[in-house]
Design brief:
The chain is an alpha/beta fold and 343 residues long. The chain contains 14 helices and 14 strands. The protein has one domain: TIM Barrel (Alpha-Beta Barrel).
């Protein structure tokens, strides 16, 4: 019970600090890229299609609600507001880490949003490192079943863990364990970094053990080194120091995209990290993302109401549509062919 109480408090701390602008560190790299304006796009703005497919389901927009929070009373309200809005607008959604609901089954209800969002792609979530802390195929499958998920995000957050007061630090031999786990699970696995980016070497190693969906979740945006440093007395400077650590969003996306040619199987790239507007979404797609994840702005809106989440979705969608109009792309296939100028 004490461990549950500690996790609940940690999640409250995370949410409070993550919504503070002081935790938003660095540039995601989008300012280094520019589109060439197309003054004569020869398309009808009203016919621009923002939809795509993800996990075998159609989604209406090229962005999704990224995994962000859970394990507390506020998490239930946030998840419900997000789920209702995601269902209404037809976008994918991830939930926060479900570890606490395995350790305390009474808390499963905090994450169970499938009834509120029956049709959207839904992503379950747990730390990969839990394979070294008592979790096995049984617990990972239970996390999927808990919310009737379409995929399982296994988050990789070593910098956060070693600065976090309660952090799990044993990241030894995780790849062999993941290799054995993937074929046994009922859904695909998403390898998700948590704010520091995926490198070429790591993506290749993850692909080798069976991962085919990669969430770059890079440096530039909500910074978990800074957040954990602020939570741990005497570690503020360490948090700030490693707040400058990581691979920018744009670099991690382009690294993953270049690897498509080397891999025999199709991969899916989820670009995320510090993305705050429709132009950045468009740039992420043009750089190679299949879909774009956004977390902090959605958490901020969901704390207010479902209506605020809906307003955010509408704003992002319209900004994205205007950006596509400005480059002459009437759908995602054409947007992916647009070349960006690197400054």
């Amino acid at each position: 019970m004490n461990n549950t109480k500690n996790i609940k408090q940690r999640k409250k701390d995370h949410l409070k600090i993550a919504l503070n602008e002081s935790s938003q560190i660095g540039s995601a790299g989008f300012d280094k890229y520019q589109f060439i304006h197309n003054a004569l796009p020869e398309i009808n703005f009203d016919e621009i299609d923002l939809s795509t497919t993800f996990l075998g389901k159609k989604v209406n927009y090229l962005f999704f609600v990224s995994c962000m929070t859970g394990g507390m009373a506020e998490g239930k309200r946030i998840n419900r507001n997000l789920a209702h809005a995601a269902q209404k607008y037809g976008i994918a959604m991830g939930v926060g880490s479900q570890r606490i609901a395995i350790e305390n089954p009474k808390l499963k209800d905090l994450f169970m949003v499938r009834d509120d969002a029956p049709d959207i792609p839904l992503i379950a979530n747990v730390g990969l490192v839990q394979l070294n802390y008592g979790f096995s195929e049984k617990e990972f499958q239970e996390i999927i079943n808990m919310i009737n998920a379409d995929a399982l995000a296994v988050h990789i957050n070593l910098i956060q863990e070693v600065i976090q007061p309660e952090g799990d630090r044993n990241f030894k031999d995780l790849l062999p364990k993941l290799k054995k786990l993937i074929p046994k699970l009922s859904t695909p696995v998403i390898a998700k970094e948590v704010g520091f980016g995926l490198s070429k070497n790591v993506i290749k190693r993850l692909y080798k053990v069976g991962v085919r969906i990669f969430d770059t979740a890079r440096w530039g945006g909500t910074n978990w080194a800074v957040i954990e440093g602020m939570r741990r007395e005497g570690f503020e400077n360490l948090g700030k120091l490693f707040g400058e650590w990581g691979i920018p969003t744009t670099d991690s996306i382009t690294i993953a995209n270049k690897l498509r040619k080397e891999f025999t199987d199709k991969i899916t790239i989820l670009g995320s990290g510090g993305i705050r507007n429709g132009i950045q979404i468009a740039k992420a797609i043009a750089l190679g993302s299949d879909l774009v994840g956004i977390a902090q702005p959605f958490a901020k809106a969901a704390l207010v109401s479902q209506e605020e989440v809906e307003k955010l979705i509408e704003r992002l969608a319209y900004e994205l549509k205007v950006a596509m109009f400005g480059v002459g792309a009437k759908n995602v296939q054409e947007l992916r062919k647009i070349k960006l100028i690197k400054q």
